[in-house]
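Objective 1.3, modelling of assemblies. Example input:
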Amino acid sequence: MIDTIKEHLTQVENFSSTSMDEIEAFRIKYLGKKGLLNQFFAEFKNVPKEEKAAFGQIINQLKNTANAKVNDLKAELENHTEAKGVYGDLTRPGHPIELGARHPISIVKNRIIEIFSRIGFNVSEGPEIEDDWHNFTALNLPEYHPARDMQDTFFIQTNPDILLRTHTSSVQVRYMEENKPPIRTISPGRVYRNEAISARSHCFFHQVEGLYIDKDVSFADLKQTLQHFTSEMFGKSKIRLRPSYFPFTEPSAEVDVYWGLETETDFKMTKGTGWLEIMGCGMVDPNVLRNCNIDPEEYSGFAFGMGIDRIALLLYQIPDIRLLSENDVRFLEQFKSSL
Ligand code: DAH
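Predicted structure (tokens):
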């Protein structure tokens, strides 16, 4: 008899189930009114005196083990169900969906692309690691030309022919080499200059280059195009062109937009003049066209270049250019509602 009970004890110890029905059936089998334990207890009176102590001990052990087993399995199953919950608590509030924010450089760049694409410009790109020809020589900046000093260049290793482009004007050259006029293209991208990093300048920043080449393109077309741009971009269409010098354009000009002097911010931004300088431009130098196999007798065109970072700093009143590349979420989050 004791052996049979011991066998049951092993069975009880080894029993396991994740089904409530099975656990209940197990409980009834051992602990139910007509269960095995009650049957064993009923046997007690027939057990010889000398065995009673051992018999009592073993059925008590079986009873306790069975009880503990049922309780443990039920508790485990209940915990499990709660944690995983087929549906969970449907009345709980949902997790808010975090919206990302576009970087201010992207916002400004996309605005510029949008404005020019509506008047027929496509978007072109070139490499950031550039050769001397595309960054300088083809743009009418031969070796030893003093204007090369205007742009402190990062060279790749010790090879003076391979460098990080100092402006997106290099993409003009690549585009003209590969496409025949009429050409209307803008080229946004990152550029690099070996400059001391401060609140106002960085060793890398972003530009958009514009290029228009066709028959009979005049300076008036340039001015009209830029005026359209400033009125779309800033809501201001009063501009002025100041004569300037760039090796790749002749004549060249610097473009100022009239910002106004209505608020204290206007006053600060424009240093009290009301005017803001926003880009360089000019008629593409015939030498540049020739370098790109375009006949300057047949075609003419204009080009312009502007700094995206500078425009972003102006538009959003950002006091330090370094904020644009530090990726501080407290800064970036503030552009959440922008396009
Ligand atoms: N490449 C000039 C710069 O980085 C900007 C520029 C000026 C581009 C005049 C042009 C231009 O295409 O015509 O400062």
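The chain has two domains: 2-87, 104-335.
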